[in-house]
Every structure is written in structure tokens, then in C-alpha cells.
Design brief:
This protein is an alpha+beta fold and about 725 residues long. The protein is built from 29 helices and 20 strands. β9 and β10 form a beta hairpin. α2 crosses α20, α10 crosses α14 and α28 packs antiparallel against α29. Bound molecules: zinc ion. It comes from Streblomastix strix.
């Protein structure tokens, strides 16, 4: 399968693409932001010897801003706030009754019930007008969920965003998310960090998906986000959280005079949480309110309203590339979807003034059959056919179909010729070893008989099953396009998956020479004495003036962009990115050949070493960076470190995983990609043993995306625009 989550994991875009109506695309602009205000009770309770519970948070109020999008890019806001005081009001029971809520429901239940009512309206604002697109479409309320052919599938789901909600607010919501009227789905993430949770209304089937807005911007405070991504800077409001607790809230919040400056003293911050100037501003603001509760509501709502503008700006930024931000739960997954999408539509991302020409955009009307002209034509063998017949018979038998007239091993010659001379009945591709044939049953009630089957690619046959024919055709064309341009595709060979999985590791950062004082510290040098087999560490006469940081992050745009650079000595001065897998081998001569020829890009598992005569050239930066297990034995970490650790009874596990810089593969097989291995070979490494290799097609498909984003960012910096942050966010 091709990899393009922006289309293939987004049913609405997939539909619009398949029906050639992408001009109708609009990003989701309706959403809700919410925030809690809390009561904090100082408890100071010892839970265990080591753990003391400082304070407990209780819900005081919840506020939300509902965004109703108009047909143009404008929108209407509706702001709401529910507090503990609602539960005391005379008509509380009446309010609960209106939503058919049980009598013990909290004000959070009430908020959720109201929110479910609002999202139905928001959904109506966002969904596509079916009738405007298809005159033949039947009006059917539920078509989106059953995937009716003529209705644009559009999930009945509205996003509810809180700032840093995955840690705090979700925990406060938790007990209200399951009740008689609605039910909670399985959360994504952990209990302490819930990335996303969906709540479905049992009657209307509307869904609320709670996500953390902070994940869409990266770690920062809400204030910083509004400053960086919003348009205007407004003065921030203040509220003395710490003096309100579950004993005094009724009394404290009903007072009509403003809080005292003393009330803003914060234990958590060890001083006043606001300055005197901010307090004076607060006094002015407070004049507009009848009491502290009214001010609290205003304050609570304001925190949700200020999230709207940055989110709208984010939605706009991505919408120009046909990306629907609110479909994603983090900026990382959104950026990944964007870059994969860019490889199908390079011209959409090629906004440079000096337009370079890249390959053509994906066009669903184009003919991409036989995308790989070099593929070897398929030749049916007796064994392959026998196996196929056996599986077809099993399939039919399990489905309760008559198998008497099924194709048999005797039909081998007939099908051998058929597969050689005919093409796929669905996509008209020739059958090759890249594109294996199968039999596609025409009448689903009948079995695999000669009369009921036409030849079809295995991949077409799979995507053909029980689907809208236009969507099937989209999948097939995208697959052919991906093959034509060597774009990445899902890995189907388990051996390749395992090889790649082994390479994935975190914590790749190392600091050499931790302390250096400019003008003071002498430069430390390592030398190797071959005769005594000792490493000597000594300071030389040169004094440190600058620090050098080496950033080898392969996720950085300079490495994945595949932009030509004369300093890259390999593969046309470009670092190509991997497309679909070509083959896997464990034959040493094949592995050696691929490494030596320097044409294919690959990942290889080998053992290698640098000879001792090279050590002194390489010790400043030993070039094999690996996380390896190091035993904390005296002979490993040295007498000094070992005795220090014992003296201070430091916790010493038997083994530690540490990022190390090595001069050989430590007697183990290690995995390198082609560029890394070629660099090591050019530095003089000797390969002693070959274990496995996975070879990939190569592409430079990320170039338009990286170039464009870089240029947009530079332009934004020069213009002093806040958009700069968006582009930085996307590229990283
Ligand atoms: Zn086909």
C-alpha cells in the first residue's frame, strides 16, 4: 500500500479525491475550546514515606468557547461557563431535567449535555452539502456512518481542545465522561497523559473528541502560544487560585469587592503571583463585574477564547496545502501527513519564484499502468498455480460455495498463457514479479471457476473487495503512482521490518568534555599507544575558546531534503530517501556487492572494525555512534570511577545502556544505512562479516516540501511575521 495518511486515513479527503471534487475541500473550522478552574485544598498528607500529597484539586468551574464556522472563513463564537454555584441554584433540577440527566449529575454533566447539543449544530455547519454535489444522491441522515456511495463521508465528530489538558483537565473530566446518556471510548495515551479520548452520545451518535491543543503547537505556555501564533497581544488576566478551597468558596466568591493584593500570594511560586502593576490593572477590570464569581466566569471563559485565534491560524496555514489540521492529535502526525502528501502533489508545494521542475502531480485521470518498465514479466510455475488453486478452494469451502467446477492444477497451461498475454481486468497493468496476478471473481455468489473469474493484480483484487469502485480506483492509481516515483510503501516483508525495527532507538545524545571554560580550560586530547594498548588522556597547551556542537539529527531537513550538495560524495551528490523495499538478502556476496557498488540505497547488518593504526586519527570523534550495554565492572569503567561509585554507594546496576562512540562494532553485528557505511569505509573501516541487507528504491521526493517551507520561513523572518513559527513547527 502507498503511504499517504492525509488521503488514505482521512475518509472525507479520500472521497473527494476519488470523486474528483477536491475543489470542494474545506478544513474543519468548527471546534470547541474548554478549560477548568479548580479549588485547591492544601492537604500535606504523607501517602508513603517518600511521597507527600501537597494539595488536591477540585472542580470549581468549566468554561468553553464554541466555534461555529460560516461558509466563508468567518465564524461565530458562543461562550459558556458552568460553576459549582449552578448546583446550588433553585432551578438546577429543572436544568438537569431538560437534558434528561439523572438528578445526581454535576455541573460538568450539565456542560457536557449542553456541549453535545452545540456540536450537532457545529457539525451541521461543517458537513458538506451532499445535494449540491450529486443530483442523484438520496437524502439519508446516516449515510456518513454507513459509507453510502453518494454521500461525502464526514465523521460526526467535533474536536474539544484544552490547553495542556492531557495531564490535568482530562483527569477532572474523567468521572463525567461515562453516564446514561453518553459513553467513553478507549483513550489514546496513558492514564497520566491522555492524548485523545472520544465520548459518543448514545442517542444522537455525535462524538466529542477531547484533545490537547498544546500537542498541536509544541510545549509552551498558553500565553506564549497566543503571543506567537495569535494576531494581537492582549493583557493577561489574573486570578488568585490558591486562596479558594472547598471550605470557603461559597463565601469568598460571592463577595462584591475585588481580591486583596495579599490574596495573590502564591505558595507554589514562593511569592506574589502578580506584580503591583498587574494588580492595579485587575482593580480597573474588576469594576465591570458585580462580584468575584462574575469575574471568575469572565476569567475562565477568556482562557478558552484566546485559544481560538491561534488554532484558526494553524488551520489556515495547513488548509492551503489541503491538510485538515483538526484531523490530527499532534503537530508531529500532522506534519508527517503533510510531507507524505507533498510527494503526491509536488507542484502544490513548489511556491518558489525560481520554479524548479519536479515530477508531475498525481492525477486520478492519468494512466499509470505499468509504472515500472524494467519489471520482469510474470511466468506461472506449476507450484505457484497449485498453491493458488488450493487456497481458492479453501476460501470457497469456508464461504460455503460450491467448489466442483473450481479451477484445478490441470488449468496451469491455460492460465500461464493468459497471465502472459492479458492484463489486469481492473487496472490494465501487465503481470510482473513486482505485480503478481490472481483471479478476481465476478459474481460474488459463485466460486473460483474458469467462467466466473478474470485475471487481476493481487493488489487490485484486495482493494476491489466490497468497496466503492471510485475509491478502489483511487487506491490503485495511487499505488501505481507510488511505484512510478519510488515513493515509500508499507513493508510487507517481515524480515525487512525486523531489520529496520532493530535500528530504532532513542537517547542518541552524548556530551564530550562536559566542562570547558573559555580562556581557561586546556583542550583535552586522547592518544592511543599501540605498544602498551593504552589510551592516554592529557591536556595539551591549547586553551578552549569556543565550543563545537555536532548535531547529527537525521530528521533534520538538510538531510532528508535530498537537495544536491557538492560535499556529498555519493549517489549524484544527493542523499536519497528510501522508497519501497526492493529485496532482502542474507547472502554475503550480494551484501558485499551492494556495499561496494555504491549505487543502491540500503540498510546492512555487518561486523566491522578500524585497524589500530587508524586510532589516533579517529579518537577525537570515534565515528560509530551506538547505544550499547556497558557492564559496570571495574575493568570496564576504570578503577577511579568504580571506587567513587562504591564510596558514595551510588546505585550500580549490572548493565547500563549508554550512547557510546566506538572504533569497532564491539564484536556484534550492527546495522548501518548505506551513507553511514560508505563514510566509515572511506575513513578506513574493515568489514569482517555480513549478516543481512535490505535494499530500497530511492527518491528525492521531499525536496519541494523542504525547499518551500524553508523559503516561506525565511520570507516570514525577513517580514517579521509570526508565521515564521508555523513553518519552523512544520519542518521540525
Ligand atoms: Zn490491477
Amino acid at each position: 500500500m502507498p503511504i499517504c495518511p492525509a488521503i488514505l486515513n482521512h475518509p472525507t479527503i479520500e472521497y473527494l479525491m476519488a470523486y474528483r471534487i477536491m475543489d470542494q475541500f474545506k478544513a474543519q473550522r468548527g471546534f470547541i475550546t474548554y478549560d477548568f478552574e479548580k479549588l485547591s485544598d492544601q492537604v500535606m498528607k504523607n501517602i508513603t514515606d517518600q511521597t507527600t500529597l501537597l494539595s488536591q484539586l477540585h472542580k470549581l468551574s468549566i468554561a468553553s468557547t464554541e466555534v461555529f464556522p460560516n461558509q466563508d472563513k468567518s465564524y461565530e463564537l458562543v461562550k459558556r461557563c458552568y460553576t459549582l454555584f449552578d448546583e446550588l441554584s433553585e432551578n438546577y433540577q429543572e436544568q438537569l431535567d431538560r437534558y434528561e440527566l439523572p438528578s445526581n449529575s454535576s455541573f460538568v454533566h450539565l456542560w457536557l449535555a449542553q456541549t453535545f447539543e452545540s456540536v450537532e449544530e457545529i457539525y451541521q455547519c461543517m458537513k458538506y452539502e451532499d445535494n449540491a454535489l450529486h443530483s442523484d444522491s438520496k437524502s439519508n441522515e446516516n449515510t456518513n456512518s454507513v459509507g453510502g456511495i453518494n454521500a461525502i463521508s464526514f465523521d460526526k465528530c467535533v474536536k474539544v481542545l484544552g490547553w495542556n489538558s492531557s495531564r490535568f483537565d482530562i483527569a477532572l473530566l474523567w468521572d463525567a465522561l461515562d453516564c446514561e446518556l453518553w459513553t467513553m471510548g478507549v483513550p489514546i495515551g496513558s492514564l497520566n497523559y491522555t492524548k485523545s479520548i472520544t465520548v459518543t452520545h448514545k442517542k444522537s451518535h455525535m462524538k466529542l473528541q477531547f484533545i490537547d491543543a498544546e500537542n498541536l503547537f509544541g510545549p509552551m505556555t498558553l500565553k506564549a502560544c497566543v503571543k506567537d501564533y495569535g494576531d494581537k497581544t492582549e493583557h493577561t488576566d489574573v486570578f488568585p487560585y490558591e486562596i479558594i478551597n472547598s471550605n470557603n468558596w461559597k463565601e469568598v466568591l460571592m463577595k462584591t469587592e475585588p481580591f486583596e493584593y495579599e490574596d495573590f500570594k502564591s505558595q507554589l511560586k514562593g511569592g506574589y503571583s502578580i506584580t503591583k502593576d498587574e494588580y492595579d490593572q485587575y482593580l480597573i477590570d474588576f469594576k465591570r463585574f458585580t462580584n468575584r464569581l462574575d469575574y471568575l466566569k469572565y476569567y475562565n471563559i477568556n482562557d478558552t477564547e484566546i485559544m481560538v485565534k491561534p488554532l484558526m491560524n494553524l488551520i489556515d496555514t495547513f488548509e492551503q496545502f489541503n491538510i485538515d489540521v483538526l484531523h490530527y492529535i499532534s503537530i508531529a502526525s500532522c506534519a508527517y501527513a503533510t510531507i507524505r502528501y507533498s510527494t503526491y502533489f509536488p507542484s502544490k508545494f513548489n511556491l518558489e519564484s525560481d520554479k524548479q521542475s519536479y515530477y508531475e502531480d498525481f492525477d486520478i485521470n492519468a494512466d499509470y499502468s505499468n509504472p515500472n518498465p524494467d519489471a520482469k514479466p510474470f511466468e506461472l510455475t506449476v507450484g505457484y498455480w497449485k498453491n493458488k488453486c488450493y487456497h481458492y478452494k479453501q476460501q470457497d469451502y469456508k464461504a460455503g460455495r460450491e467448489t466442483d467446477k473450481n479451477v484445478t492444477a490441470d488449468d496451469n497451461d491455460y492460465y500461464k498463457q493468459l497471465f502472459e498475454t492479458s492484463v489486469c481486468s481492473i487496472c490494465s497493468a501487465k503481470f510482473t514479479y513486482d505485480n503478481l496476478p490472481s483471479l478476481d471473481r465476478q459474481d460474488n455468489e459463485l466460486s473460483h471457476t474458469k467462467a466466473n473469474c478474470l485475471p487481476a493484480c493481487v493488489s487490485c483484487n484486495i482493494s476491489h473487495a466490497n468497496r466503492d469502485p471510485k475509491i478502489t480506483s483511487l487506491h490503485i492509481k495511487m499505488r501505481q503512482y507510488a511505484i512510478k516515483h519510488n515513493l515509500p510503501m508499507t513493508i510487507s516483508d517481515e524480515r525487512i521490518y525486523k531489520l529496520l525495527r532493530e535500528c530504532i532507538t532513542g537517547g542518541l545524545a552524548a556530551v564530550f568534555h562536559r566542562e570547558n571554560i573559555a580562556g581557561k580550560t586546556h583542550i583535552n586530547e586522547l592518544t592511543y599507544d599501540e605498544q602498551s594498548n593504552n589510551l592516554i588522556s592529557q591536556d595539551n597547551e591549547n586553551v578552549t575558546t569556543h565550543v563545537f556542537a555536532l548535531d547529527g539529527n537525521s530528521l533534520y531537513p538538510s538531510s532528508y531534503s535530498s537537495v544536491k550538495n557538492e560535499n556529498i560524495p555519493y549517489t549524484d551528490h544527493r542523499m536519497y530517501m528510501a522508497g519501497r523495499s526492493k529485496f532482502y538478502s542474507e547472502k554475503p556476496y550480494i551484501i558485499k556487492n551492494c556495499i561496494d557498488q555504491r549505487k543502491e540505497i540500503f540498510v546492512a547488518k555487518v561486523k566491522d572494525y578500524f585497524s589500530k593504526s587508524e586510532y589516533n586519527n579517529l579518537l577525537a570523534l570515534p565515528p560509530i555512534f551506538r547505544n550499547i550495554e556497558i557492564e559496570n565492572k571495574e575493568e570496564m569503567i576504570g578503577e577511579y570511577m568504580f571506587s567513587q561509585a562504591q564510596k558514595h554507594s551510588l546505585p550500580m546496576l549490572k548493565k547500563d545502556r549508554k550512547l557510546s562512540t566506538l572504533l569497532d562494532t564491539n564484536g556484534q553485528f550492527m546495522i548501518f544505512n548505506n551513507y553511514y557505511l560508505w563514510l566509515l569505509i572511506d575513513l578506513g573501516i574493515v568489514i569482517t562479516d555480513y549478516k543481512a541487507i535490505a535494499v530500497f528504491e530511492k527518491n528525492a521526493a521531499d525536496e519541494p516540501f523542504v525547499r518551500t517551507m524553508m523559503n516561506l520561513r525565511i520570507q516570514a523572518i525577513l517580514a517579521g511575521s509570526t508565521k515564521e513559527k508555523f513553518h519552523k513547527l512544520i519542518i521540525n
